[in-house]
Design brief:
Mean pLDDT: 97
Shape: globular
Low-confidence stretches: none
Number of domains: 1
Strand order of the largest sheet: 1-2-4-3-5-6-7-8
CATH architecture: 3-Layer(aba) Sandwich
CATH topology: Rossmann fold
Radius of gyration: 17 Å
Number of helices: 11
Structural class: alpha/beta
Length: 266
């Protein structure tokens, strides 16, 4: 897996799809890495160059030695684009990755052609901060499988819990993951994520934006989508009925079709 050292961090990424196609940066959520996007990008029919990024402190990227912010993570991605010779690119961000994508579009509006924000947020809040700090504390104390049994009711819907074997298979995959994020790295990402705020700054975004949310998402409910719609100059919302925060894994065909159709408009 290729990596470049930028902004003092080694940032790993997978370069998939058509190497001559239009570049699209895919940014995962808290604790995740570029592999989260494979169920989605594997369903693309058009020839995009899909760059699946491992953010700092996750996957095969380097580990930080001190606290940082979402703005720092956005600088990592901008510098990665520079290193790859990408002057103009599309950005697709999920959850925390959506915060990084917002920051890129706010601070480097001339670089972002189109923006896709999936199950993300405009700012931390007291409920979310308590939730994620609590999860970070549990991550230090529990094996991966037990941790996921506590986390997954927030990620997956009641309908998904009724699918025979689905949750047990998801837990088994997570417990066997060789790139399971270390507790201290997760804690640094949590603090960066809950401190983020784009409210009052989204007017600087020039790129047309597509918002994709699930109507049963407990972690990033639709109130965040409404705030994004209110502040982004050019945005539309697609709501997946019955989808929760795990929609990349549970609804990849629909998510891929929405992203692909939106990017193809440019």
């Amino acid at each position: 897996m290729p990596a470049v050292t930028v902004n003092g961090m080694e940032i790993a990424y997978a370069d998939r799809g058509d190497p001559t196609g239009r570049p699209v940066l895919f940014l995962p959520g808290l604790g995740g890495d570029g592999r989260w996007w494979r169920p989605v990008t594997d369903r693309f029919a058009r020839p995009f160059r899909c760059l699946l990024v491992d953010p700092r402190d996750a996957g095969r990227s380097g580990r930080a030695s001190k606290p940082y912010t979402v703005a720092d993570m956005a600088i990592d991605i901008a510098c990665l684009a520079d290193a790859l010779g990408l002057e103009l690119f599309d950005v697709v961000g999920f959850s925390m990755g959506g915060a990084i994508a917002q920051e890129l579009a706010i601070t480097r509006p001339e670089r972002v052609r189109r923006l896709v924000l999936i199950a993300t947020y405009t700012s931390g809040d007291p409920r979310g901060s308590e939730l994620f700090r609590g999860l970070a504390a549990l991550r230090r104390r529990l094996p991966a499988a037990e941790y996921c049994r506590i986390l997954f009711p927030w990620v997956y819907t009641h309908g998904e819990y009724r699918r025979p074997g689905f949750i047990e298979e998801a837990i088994a995959r997570a417990a066997a993951d060789p790139l399971w994020q270390e507790p201290e790295a997760y804690e640094r990402q949590v603090e960066a994520a809950i401190a983020y705020c784009s409210e009052g700054r989204l007017g600087a975004v020039r790129a047309p934006a597509l918002l994709i949310f699930g109507d049963e998402d407990l972690m990033t409910p639709l109130r965040f989508a409404r705030r994004l719609l209110a502040e982004l100059p050019d945005a539309r919302l697609a709501v997946l009925a019955g989808a929760g925060h795990g929609l990349l894994a549970t609804r990849p065909t629909e998510v891929a079709a929405l992203i692909e159709g939106f990017l193809a408009e440019a």
